[in-house]
Fold each of these.
Amino acid sequence: MKVANVTAPIRVLVVKLSSLGDVVHTLPVVMDIQANFPNAKIDWVVESSFAPIVRACSAIHRVIACDLRRWRKNIWSRDTRLDWQAFMDDLHQERYDAVIDLQGLTKSALVSWLARTSAQGKRFAMAHATDGSSYERVTRWVADIAIEVEPHIHAMTRARVVCARALQYEVPSTLRYGLNYEQETKDSKNTLVFVHGTSRADKEWPLAHWQELGLRLSRAGYQIVLPHGNEEERIRSDAMAEMIPNATVWPSMSIDKLMQAMASTAGVIGVDSGLSHIAVALNLPHVQIYNFDTAWRTGPIGSANETMRQRSVVDFPTPTVDAVWSLWQECIA
């Protein structure tokens, strides 16, 4: 596909449906496309629960929300049929010069196949799996052009490389997420978020470690705030609030409200989870905790022309409080 004329008003459809961290890691892709094609109109198909994140990105023209997870559970219901038809009507509003599947799964391949292309439009996808990432071969069958990428590559870099090779531009040295949130209160400089919740138990940090770190930070003048995404996390937040002086449990919030609240804090310390990746996207001081070495694939990375405000710490069976404390001091130095 030849798209060298950067003034041409091309239409691009990005297909990245889930999950939270993966969606956040894809935000720099649309910023890259906009930087190289200022007149591009970039649409994105994403699961409804993550749509507010995509809508908050300044480069996005239109968000096409779907609920494939929910629809699969009630595939024959009338509501599912109506919702599916509404999704198809939304998807077919445009014909795209490039449809780019950045998920590499059967569900994303289906969406790419259903999307309409322009007369010269092409469908792009990854040609193969990369280390530590899921991949299903059907995505290559659907693609007109399969993009080769390095097998050992960060998830964010992989997406940026796929799009750059599809649309024939160089990956920018600047890394931007396009999320613009203003701090709402001046008192936020002393508020620090503990992101303790994660979808996998083996990613959790011990409760005693959170308590010790919270006590140190409390003595340093910080007020700890504790978000939660489900009942189990709420119970843990309540327990941590009892252990740490002046700690506060945040109420349940929508993802867009949560992003705004996080943006108005001094920073985040958290395990490998979607909220930790949002902290990176918001350019907050942040320490990301790993119990095994997958930080090379999903951890914070900087661009060639910015100072890192985020660090990852990896150790087995789990990083020490001293290690996390030391990296936090570096992040705020």
Amino acid sequence: MARKLDRREFIAATGAIGITGLAGCTGGGDGDEETTTTADEGMDGEETETETTTETGGDGTESRLSWHAGGTGGTYFPLSNEFKSVVEANTDFTLQVQSTGASVENVGSLARGNADFALIQNDVAFFAKNGTGIDAFDGNPVENLSGVATLYPETIHIVTLADTGIEQPSDLEGATINTGDLGSGTQVNATQILEALGIEDFTEQNTGFSQASDQLKNGDIDAAFVVGGWPVGAIEELAATEDVHIVPVEGDNRQAVKDAAPFYADDEIPSGTYGLENPAPTVSVQAMIATNAEQPEATVEAVTEAIFENVDDLTIKTDFISKETAQDGMSIDLHPGAQAYFG
């Protein structure tokens, strides 16, 4: 039976998981190997221990860097592994790519020093840096959060199956909806958008993209929010066996979402994607690389240069990722290392 969502309750829960332990940010190494074990929420909602190892040279420059991505069914994880390949091929650094609950959780990891770099959404970066927007950030800005580069539009997918009968946003009223992992930017966006669309009564589920796909296939949910650059792997896999429908966000509905927050922009999922017969109008935010103020300028400059001088070696989102567009939609101040590269 559907229940009415208490928006503030779920936003608070999102932020609490994402920034638990913001205090106690750590600096660089001293030439020794340092191993830190932290508790992170896994994709299934259970707490798992993550071991982060940082090796440094005698001059204090880190050689092993921790890069926090997102769920394995989204775009962040495979793209981060492509970044790993180009960074390791063109610098002396090695990257440890970790699957996480994505944006809000990654902000907390950067703030605590458990991650050296991470992929996050530009809206979550703005909220965190300015201490606003999300209840958990209100009055608690993440002051050491620094920008590196923006990458590509992160498309808002409202995914359902043809046999659910959900055709328009109004049909989501009373539905069971997966709004993404607690602590993720997807959950934040889903809550904002549902409120903007006037959807007040629904049952919420919270998992990563891959699990949401299984829930749709099994009939456990009616719809799911997925935020990522198309094509998202988990939706492609679902579309291989099911008739996928993307709920359109257009006209007055699109304008209502854009009026709710300044960082949403018009977007469209092309026909042919996920087997769609027609383009699906929607909105998007922007994916970006972030770091923390404790990272040495030389480290950030080298990693940034390796990525943007070797875009031709990437296969994911290459129509969008470039040095020329890497500051479009940047919502926070750049790290000095990134500034040194981009000029």
Amino acid sequence: MSRLAQRAAQGIAQCTEADLPELREFREQMYPYQSVDQLPAASFEWLSRTNPNTSPESTGIWICRRDGRIVGEQAELSFSLKVADEHLRAATAIELMVDPEWRLRGVGPALSEVQRKGVRVACALWMSDAAYRLYQRSGWIDLGEVPHRVLLVSPLGVLRNVATTKRRIATLAILPVAAMMCAYVAVRTRLRVRGTRLVETDAFDERADEIWSEASSSYEVIAHRDLQNLRWRFDECPYARHYRRFYLFRGARPVGYLVVRPGRSRRVPILKVVDYLAPPATVPVLLAHTVRLARRQSAALVEITTRDRLTSRRLTRLGFMPVEKVERWRGETTGVRFMVSVEDDDPIREIVTTPGAWFVTTADGDLDLAEFSQEPAASATGAGR
């Protein structure tokens, strides 16, 4: 840490519940055009105290004060990480924001460093250009983008919601090809889902541990997705009512789980895959079921953001296309930036800095939570420098 950052660190402290009103005011100033409701008492309790992976001495939120007022914040989503056969504490850095008057004065690096020192592996997903440069200067490793894919379910559903004439004409021009592709996807879906069934559940139960025990060994680096963690992330989350949870059964045996939620993108109704887990050979079957779910909900597209090296080619064959190929409908969209930080002499450094070793979904960051609270800047989008 530089001397400037060391001086900045002197004003950094753990956020307490008593600090929340002032922190909310700070966020309202930083995001004047957004609805800032991500840190009420209920969300603070969920993020800081009920998370099974948060250390007793940490609330998971840090604030920096200057002249008696908050000028910066940094939070984290703590999780347990499986690296090969080792299990360790890690965290995803979220909500890095610094008052413009205090940028380039060491506040951002100091906040980031304080958060980073508390875990063996730190991750960052979905960040602004400014935050990306900050992490680069701090020695974080760029693991590229987590791909964003789209599966077309209903070309007419897209056409009905295309607003501009130019895009409507472009959509009409490719409608026959899109219809043929959807028919192909439908056939492959029916073939893949044979012998399996998707069953909705109101909350996760012991079957989640069964799935984790069978599937986790196939993935080199993956956040724990056992019952304890799934309950916290989806059942106890302040936004739990927005999620739909499913188990995939082959016969009487649970072989995977799926978490989705409905949404809209540029007026087009979509079904978003938030999280999933199954043995690699079963993942295409699990995601094939999303086509049927989408049709039942009248969704025109299925969206998924995931890094899953073992099944990426199978997703393409199933019909999931990189988002760049559907820009004519969606506008410019890229994948989600992914960075990690680990000490140079840590024996796990080689594996955790290998992009293909990771299994990552939307649930490993706060991208989904930020959309709920209408805060597109929630993950280090503020130029914390």
Amino acid sequence: MNKRLTYCNNEKNISVSLIQDLRKKINLSVEDLAIKLQLEGINMSSQVIRNIENNKRTVTDFELSMIAKALNISIIINGKEIKYLDDAILI
């Protein structure tokens, strides 16, 4: 019988602690992150970010890539590294 993996260690998002840790490391509030995302055209409120960080909402791969951009980091999705250079996305 195939089991569908929906949670990893009871977390909806494997990246939950990473997002929060990186955000705090660069002294960025949830509100500031929401503003950065909104300036990129991503309609994500501070409450949505809190829900992601508190494991109450899953984060899509697109949202994760935009959060990575806002945090100025690269991420790897499906074995492909995604880097941001100005307005270009390099895959």
